Amino acid sequence: MKRTLFIISILIIFTSILAETLWGMPAFARKYRMSCKTCHEPFPHLKPYGLEFAANGYVIKDQDTPRYFSDTGDDKLSLLKEFPFALRMEGFISYNQTKTKIADFSTPFNIKLLSGGALAKNISYYFYFFLSEGGKIVGLEDAFLMFTNLFRTSLSLTIGQFQVCDPIFKRELRLTFEDYHIYGARGGLSGIDLTYDRGIMLNYKIHKGPDLFFDILNGSGIGEANVFENFDSDKYKNVFGRISQDIGKHFRIGACGYYGKEAPGSAVNTIRMLGGDATVLFPGIEINFQYLERKDDNPYFHAFGPVEVKTSGGFVEVIIMPKGSDGLWYGVGLFNWVNSDQDELDYRSVGVHLGYLLLRNFRLTGEFNYIFKGPEGKYARAILGLVTAF
């Protein structure tokens, strides 16, 4: 409790000092003096130009911003004139049609303090601190350095903590309250999934060819360091790879794989994942598809007689923006499914999400989900929300 109160106090002081910067336009839009719709359709969902901007280290290609840095007279020193910050806030009114039939004011539900941008030529950073998620102080989730155009090629390197699924579909930038459940599915007592981990990510774009990703990961999430000041819980390092290819202007297809081991004690669990994904993109509509198969050979870490667990699933997402980035209305349909030898992982849901932009960075949302199968059985959930970033 004392630690929590101390963190809250520091954050209040910190945000008060930075209030003039925080209560302005989002950092990237302010830097380049451009609208949020340049990269988002709608925010926080990234359209292709926004994905290219992020992959380039939050820098617009061939556009220099010398006034963004302080002139110290030392060409080996790079200092930002102003440290960029932004806030993202989300609040909801929800009703769960469960046995208890609870209506709830879930406001605020999420509050994030974000910062990112170029530190120097070809060196960028990004992080956000979760001030509150469901009433808890979560701390740092995304936090990494990015080095782009290595060796004067399209090779980039990211080091830090990030979501393993980011090269496929970015969970943190989805429009729906409902999650992409297959990315967080874990067999037995395994601590490995495709959400947050620490490691390095290499990305290489072949001219007119595929986009390649390769990760080397701890395979132990982003929890606290142990008594030896190590974050990794075992001697193993895990690997993840993805290849994707644009086919014309409207279609993209990809495949991914994961291989790793974990051993919290003497018993070892080996994890293998294979998946495929596709995106269909036309003016006003985007369709995303993900399928993933996972096999854990000893997820309960039995020394004798290991029990194998197989899990498969994915999602189909349809995003409709009738007038593109100039429009104010949008809609999302999302279907989730997970099938597993482990019954409690089984999940099926369908949802419809509607949104209206009061401002480019302030939207009203309404969402209805029906969970056909899950840990709590069948139930419906209705949500009204406000989402803003500034």
Word description of this protein:
- The chain has 390 residues and is mainly beta.
- The protein has one domain: Porin.
- The protein is built from four helices and 16 strands.
- A hairpin with a 5-residue loop joins strand 3 and strand 4.
- The protein is globular.
- The N terminus is likely disordered.
In the predicted model, the low-confidence regions spanning at least 5 consecutive residues are: 1-25
Q: Any idea what the radius of gyration is?
A: 22 Å
The CATH homologous superfamily is termed Porin
E-strand count? 16
CATH architecture: Beta Barrel
Mean pLDDT: 85
Strand percentage: over 45%
CATH structural fold name: Porin
- Give me the side-by-side strand order of the main sheet: 1-2-3-4-5-6-7-8-9-10-11-12-13-14-15-16
**CATH C-level name:** Mainly Beta
The gross shape turns out to be globular
Helix count? Answer: 4
Write the H/E string, N to C: HHHHEEEEEEEEEEEEEEEE
Largest sheet: 16 strands, antiparallel, barrel
Instruction: Return the domain count.
Output: 1
Distance between the termini: 30 Å
Give helix % range.
under 10%
Structural class: mainly beta
